[in-house]
Recover the amino acids of this structure.
């Protein structure tokens, strides 16, 4: 029986404004790929990312260009060769996983040996702002055990100090989004270590991070923009201590699992992160993150409304997805 694909664009308002070093946004723009076979249907959500040259129209076109291959029964392994890594492949790959689970009656969690599933402690992200504003955000979320703090400006030491003073008991991840430079990284790292920071994400621009191999790492440094697929890892040895795996970068759960396993083999720590999307985008990542060192799957917590049904969040704990959502 031939498979049928449909593609929809959806928008979900963000609660307030989400700001990083590259700009701000007030809504999450997502694309849903649905692949049907008879009475069964699987879904996958992706978040096109402009920094990687992706647009809503471009990703939608890339998904629809696979219509015939999907109708002919392309599998996930062949999909890796048929499409490049990125949001479009992620949506199709996750839809195929979901469809396979619904047809076979075997959950994705069982298929990837992720059982028994457990709830995960996710980071909660604080947007970039002036130190006082960031302190207010931190104070309002000081009961959360893990905060992810967006930085990447000229006054980051003041921001780090303000957040740490406002949330003294929280573990903190700093995410510079490539916003530091060779001139300030050593001082910023040293101050982060003094403040007990747990991890620093992508301090320098991808491809211009060679200095990381020649300076001390008083705080572990995690690659984000510098790593998309498993093939990227060899060049990161000696520069980074951990990698942030996102389904939209890797191009789906299939590629993300390969990236995770290879990262472990090479001795990298593993963080599983996300773009700002709904519970449908987070669901497969929750399965991927079952043994992660750091989890950042707070996308739905940043939205004014999530899709229904969604994931269950209790404080900073996110529960595994119900099959009615995905998998």
């Amino acid at each position: 029986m031939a498979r049928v694909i449909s593609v929809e664009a959806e928008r979900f308002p963000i609660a307030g404004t989400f700001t990083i070093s590259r700009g701000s946004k007030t809504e999450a723009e997502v694309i849903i790929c649905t692949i049907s076979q008879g009475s069964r249907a699987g879904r996958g959500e992706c978040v096109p990312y402009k920094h990687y040259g992706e647009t809503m129209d471009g990703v939608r076109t890339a998904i629809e260009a696979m219509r015939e291959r999907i109708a002919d029964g392309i599998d996930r392994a062949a999909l890796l060769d048929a499409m490049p890594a990125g949001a479009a492949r992620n949506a199709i790959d996750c839809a195929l996983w979901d469809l396979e689970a619904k047809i076979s009656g075997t959950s994705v969690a069982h298929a990837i040996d992720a059982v028994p599933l457990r709830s995960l402690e996710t980071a909660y992200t604080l947007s970039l702002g002036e130190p006082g504003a960031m302190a207010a955000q931190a104070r309002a979320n000081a009961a959360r055990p893990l905060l992810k703090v967006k930085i990447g400006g000229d006054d980051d030491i003041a921001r780090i100090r303000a957040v740490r003073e406002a949330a003294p008991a929280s573990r903190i991840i700093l995410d510079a989004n490539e916003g530091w430079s060779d001139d300030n990284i050593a001082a910023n790292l040293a101050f982060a270590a003094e403040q007990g920071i747990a991890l620093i994400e992508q301090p320098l621009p991808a491809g211009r991070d060679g200095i990381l191999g020649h300076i001390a790492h008083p705080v572990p440094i995690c690659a984000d923009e510098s790593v998309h697929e498993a093939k990227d890892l060899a060049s990161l040895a000696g520069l980074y201590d951990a990698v942030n795996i996102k389904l939209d970068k890797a191009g789906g759960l299939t590629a993300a699992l390969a990236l995770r396993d290879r990262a472990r083999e090479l001795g990298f720590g593993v963080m599983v992160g996300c773009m700002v999307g709904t519970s449908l985008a987070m669901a497969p990542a929750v399965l991927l993150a079952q043994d992660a060192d750091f989890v950042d799957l707070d996308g739905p917590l940043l939205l004014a409304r999530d899709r229904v049904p969604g994931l269950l969040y209790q404080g900073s704990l996110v529960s595994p997805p119900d099959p009615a959502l995905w998998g």
The chain has two domains: 4-108, 120-318. Residues 53 and 86 are 10 Å apart (CA to CA). The first strand starts at residue 4 and ends at 20. The chain has a mean pLDDT of 96.
